[in-house]
Amino acid sequence: MPRSIIPFLLLLFPVMAMSNMANDVQSYELPNGLKIFVQEDHRAPVVVSQVWYKVGSSYEPNGITGISHALEHMMFKGTAKHGPGEFSRIIAENGGEENAFTSTDYTAYYQIMDASKLAISFEMEADRMRNLIVDQKEFEKEIQVVMEERRMRIEDSPQHVAYERFIAAANVSTGYHHLTIGWMNDIRNMTAKDLQKWYENWYGPNNALLVVVGDVKPDEVYKLAEKYFGELKPIELPVIKPQVELKPLGKQQLVVKQPAQLPWFIMGYNVPVIKTDTKNNDPYVLSMISAILSDGNSGRLDKHLVRNQQVAASISASYDPTDRLSGLFKFQGTPAQYHSVADVQKAVFEQINALKEKPVAANELEKVKAGVVAAKIYDKDAISNQATEIGSLESVGLSWKLRDEFIKHISAVTPAQIQEVARRYFIDDNLTVTELEPLPLSSKKSKGKGSPPAEPIGTEDKHTRVH
Amino acid sequence: MPRSIIPFLLLLFPVMAMSNMANDVQSYELPNGLKIFVQEDHRAPVVVSQVWYKVGSSYEPNGITGISHALEHMMFKGTAKHGPGEFSRIIAENGGEENAFTSTDYTAYYQIMDASKLAISFEMEADRMRNLIVDQKEFEKEIQVVMEERRMRIEDSPQHVAYERFIAAANVSTGYHHLTIGWMNDIRNMTAKDLQKWYENWYGPNNALLVVVGDVKPDEVYKLAEKYFGELKPIELPVIKPQVELKPLGKQQLVVKQPAQLPWFIMGYNVPVIKTDTKNNDPYVLSMISAILSDGNSGRLDKHLVRNQQVAASISASYDPTDRLSGLFKFQGTPAQYHSVADVQKAVFEQINALKEKPVAANELEKVKAGVVAAKIYDKDAISNQATEIGSLESVGLSWKLRDEFIKHISAVTPAQIQEVARRYFIDDNLTVTELEPLPLSSKKSKGKGSPPAEPIGTEDKHTRVH
């Protein structure tokens, strides 16, 4: 959808929010515990089918970090019924697309196909839900692929190297301490047996969600799911310990020296998320603050730091209220030429202080709210996005209904709340700062060029399998 | 042994080191894998008997940190044969002393008794090695004791609070990230089932060492051990993953604000230990450096910072070359009145630079070496210390023989090596600094008084059960 359509949508949004968005997901549960969510969307004869497992890197004990992601790779290596690579081949032959992704909180597999082919997806997903063969030889090859992926995404990207240290320092006591890809040493020492056990522990119908969006009838999807997934036995799941991040007690500052072209910094305040903050609406207020500061290229940070003061080449704020564990309100930026990281940070703190000191004007707030709502609607355009939103919310223990309630909560945020929340969380005692200090590129041993990475840093920690 | 005897011992040490120290431990292994180490010491009709388990807090996955220590507490709660508290009662009735301690790398239980009573100790230790009953009610009581222990030792001690954050920041990717006591949230959510599983996983003859020192005959000890421990079946042990700390990439600085009377700081360089540095002798050189800087009250730090410059009220360096995983070379200190933490750090860096720039004079080096050797001999006086040294070395996978070889390695350290090792490791990129910034004591909610803790910080992370 072109950007220019959004203003038009804005006129419609109060109506759309109330009518089109609510109650359009049918949910079911099979006796074996598989939860099924179906949303009709008949604009095209297409269906997206996703299987979500409630396990990701934040579930991983130290020593085997990265195992959820490594297992995701192995999930394409076949069962007794479908040999290695056959899954992908069959989907492709049927004109479908498929892939998978792993995050801190979940691992998901999806296919996008002609709606008439849904049974093919179900048959194969049900098969690999319990019948995966973790072959030693295939494992040995694939773990090399995973290590190479880590080199490419982390080691060869100075910003990601710095980001990894930042994340580890800011998340001391929870499973968010390590990135989804895991520590290299843990990947290197991973065994097929580890993966087999991880698979047996977590992959079963009672730890999975099936999300289907597209040109389908919910009851028919349910019957089809029953046919293919119904016979799978529930598994005995590990007990999940409640993980709580330590209370920050003072500012943390880290320097990360890496061969790189440009300096960069990332900093974050420890903040709650919807899951950890059930009493009040701080996460919604923080979401609004994030939008005010960094809503595309119209946010305050970009306006003041990049365009007016020209102190930053790039600057952004980010915050995800729907994480499973307590989160971070992050800022990241690169100084403009002839400016330092310290200059940019100073300018960011000025913007943070402005939030604390002066209430956001009504018209600015309304404009930003409209932008947030429009983005939500825009997101709903693709059936994949719809499915992903349902799956990710349900995976972390939030309801899919939140995608609609979210707009209500956001709309209710007041200027006074923004001021109060900014004052409460955006304090030095709550802050971790990591500065990437460039070393000469010639000192870089690997093939990396130290150029800024193609993918955004830290807005999401997902790892999609590369075919 | 009074301190004044040491100079006399120094005259003897080259002889003693060669004669008395070597080959005086008899070692055995039962078919079930129990390793036995016996050292005769007939100066008194006493025996110390220790059972060591090769599991400690660095083996713990996140979510159940502190479980090794919690299990140590539960080990006194009885078996089918001996009810709760009976172990301690029987030992006391027989005129013995007993206790236990947990560390990052091991959990150990010991009795000191009349040598004729060794069988009592063996019978009960063998019994609780496999037959512990983790009773739900006893667990519920004891976990409260553990939480109270944590409050007393950590939460109520500002230096320990700061130390915990320091350790977490300096150890990013290994099991040394958390203290032996564990995160409070993990202790709070620990279950009897968790402990039962931890016990079943790790407590068995093939993961244990029996160390006996005292007025005994080795072969008789072996026969007695065979009688009591011989019938225990070996267990299937979890695979232990090699844990490697991340390469430090830049200086880390943390502020920890706590109600406290005095400012304080701790800082550490990431360095290898004997286990991780098999190629060269850096750990021995680092041990010498530690002795040069901080050998009781005659080290350079004390001499210059406390007595001459009077910038520090207290200052020390510490380093343990016998850890299981890579370690830290630590400095900690409190500024003198009218001085700041920054003043003390500056003075410490001056001493570090002096090590890099100027070779240690031969007479200073010889004096410090003599002190290290004397301390080793002094340590050997108590049979408990002898047993503990054997047990701790063997538990981490080093040989008991190292206690004697250590002296040889130390003696070989040259001024040039000291200079080179100081230059290589004592660099900013390798450094984590944590500063305790005192808040007014009135802001302290708990009963703690913010006074300096009675036990030393960080020289060892052991938790002894308090009866």
| Fourth-level CATH superfamily of the largest domain in chain A | Metalloenzyme, LuxS/M16 peptidase-like
Mean model confidence by pLDDT of chain A: 90
Strand order of the largest sheet of chain A: 1-2-6-3-5-4-12
**What is the overall number of helices of chain A?**
16
Structural class of chain A: alpha+beta
Q: How many beta-strand elements of chain A?
A: 12
What are the low-pLDDT stretches of chain A, counting only 5+ consecutive residues below 50?
1-23, 446-455
The CATH class of the largest domain in chain A, by name, is Alpha Beta
CATH architecture of the largest domain in chain A: 2-Layer Sandwich
Descriptive overview:
Two copies of one chain form a homodimer. Chain A is 42% helix and 18% strand. The longest helix of chain A has 20 residues, at 136-155. Chain A is globular, with a radius of gyration of 23 Å. In chain A, strands 1-2-6-3-5-4-12 form a seven-stranded mixed β-sheet, sandwiched between helices. Chain A has a five-stranded mixed β-sheet with strand order 7-11-8-10-9, sandwiched between helices. Chain A contains 16 helices and twelve strands. Chain A starts with 5 loop residues before the first helix and ends with a strand. In chain A, helix 1 (6-19) crosses helix 13 (362-379), helix 2 (67-74) packs across helix 8 (192-202) and helix 4 packs parallel to helix 9 (218-229). By secondary structure, chain A is α+β, with helices and mostly antiparallel strands. The first copy, chain A, folds into two domains: 26-229, Cytochrome Bc1 Complex, Chain A, domain 1; 252-458, Metalloenzyme, LuxS/M16 peptidase-like (Cytochrome Bc1 Complex, Chain A, domain 1), CATH 3.30.830.10. The model of chain A is unreliable at 1-23 and 446-455 (pLDDT under 50). Chain A binds chain B through residues 61-64, 161, 165, 168-169, 172-175, 177-178, 183, 185-186, 189, 191, 193, 239, 241-244, 246, 249-258, 429, 437, and chain B through 61-64, 161, 165, 168-169, 172-175, 177-178, 183, 185-186, 189, 191, 193, 239, 241-244, 246, 249-258, 429, 437.
